[in-house]
Amino acid sequence: MLVIHGVTRSRASRIIWLCHELDLPFRQVPVIQGYRTADPDALSTRSPEFLALSPAGAIPVIEDDGLVLSESMAATLHLARKHGGPVAPATPAEDAQMLQWSFYAATAIEDDALTIQMLTRPEATDEDREIIDEAIERLERPLKVLDAHLSANGHLVGGRFTVADLNMAEVIRYGWNDARLRDAWPAITEWLAGCQARPGFLRMWEARLAEPV
Ligand SMILES: N[C@@H](CCC(=O)N[C@@H](CS)C(=O)NCC(=O)O)C(=O)O
Questions:
Q1: For position 82, what pLDDT does the model report?
Q2: Percent with pLDDT over 70 in the chain
Q3: 31: alpha, beta or left, given left = phi > 0 and alpha = psi -120 to 50?
Q4: Which of 4, 9, 10 to mutate to test the pocket of ligand 1 (most atoms within 8 A of CB)?
Q5: Which domains can be identified in the chain, with CATH numbers?
Q6: Contacts (Cβ under 8 Å, ≥6 apart) of 53
Q7: What is the strand order of the sheet 61-64 is part of?
């Protein structure tokens, strides 16, 4: 059976959501981020047994039929290809487009979206707010591309919900607690709501909320 190492309050959420989309059973090993625990006995990204499996020391990691894979989007793309169905690429061209949008999410959007998520908190300082403003400014270019594509096509690839939407939606989620982004990019806001209304997302989200913060 597929094994997912990583708590749901991590990028493991992407793989768990995909497993629900694919109806794929998995066993979850709740490895926690090292910086989130002071308990030296907790199984974390700093534990020797986890580092032996994945020296990069980051979650998620999957074990799939002897294949050990880190990088959450490598895992979602691999599992979608392997198990097929509507979330997976139907042609090499779709496969390439799914890679393109996943790389775009990870390289052009994720860092700034994460910054917005991490710094949007009641104790945010003026400096934090300035950093958020700069991140929003940098996101203007990729979000314009994404918003235009979604308003013309509804989804990223093939006119249907695929692993590319899932990868992108999990990245966009980080920034979408900022009302300025929600208001500026209505096609993204509508598409994200559709992605997050899916039973697979809701099942993952319920498990995520059940975990300690
Ligand atoms: N690009 C990687 C990022 C992995 C990553 O940074 N994971 C975080 C949790 S979401 C982590 O394990 N942090 C633990 C640490 O830095 O000790 C992916 O998509 O899997």
A1: 98
A2: 100
A3: beta
A4: 10
A5: 2-84 (3.40.30.10), 92-200 (1.20.1050.10)
A6: 5, 61, 63, 68
A7: 26-29, 2-5, 61-64, 67-70
pLDDT band at 76 (very low <50, low <70, confident <90, very high): very high
* CB-based contacts of 56, cutoff 8 Å, min separation 6: 70
Ligand 1 centre and the CA of 152: distance in Å? 33
Distance CA 80, CA 134 (A): 35
**Cα(117)–Cα(178) distance, integer angstroms:** 8
CA 137 remoteness from chain centre = 22
Residue whose CA lies nearest to ligand 1 atom number 3: 71
Among candidates 91, 93, 89, which has minimal Cα distance to 76? 89
Please provide the DSSP assignment of 37-89 as one string.
---TTS-BTTSHHHHHH-TT--S-EEEETTEEEESHHHHHHHHHHHH-STTS-
User: How far is 213 from 211, CA to CA, in rounded Å?
Assistant: 6
pLDDT, tens digit, for every residue of 8-42? 999 999 999 999 999 999 999 999 999 999 998 99
**Token pair belonging to 31:** 């490895």
Q: Please enumerate, as own/partner, the contacts of 45-50 that have beta carbons within 8 Å and a separation of 24 or more.
A: 50/5
Among protein residues, the one whose CA lies closest to atom 1 of ligand 1: 71
Peptide bond before 122: cis, by omega within 30 degrees of 0?
no
Taking the C-alpha atoms of residue 31 and residue 82, their distance in angstroms, rounded to an integer, is 25
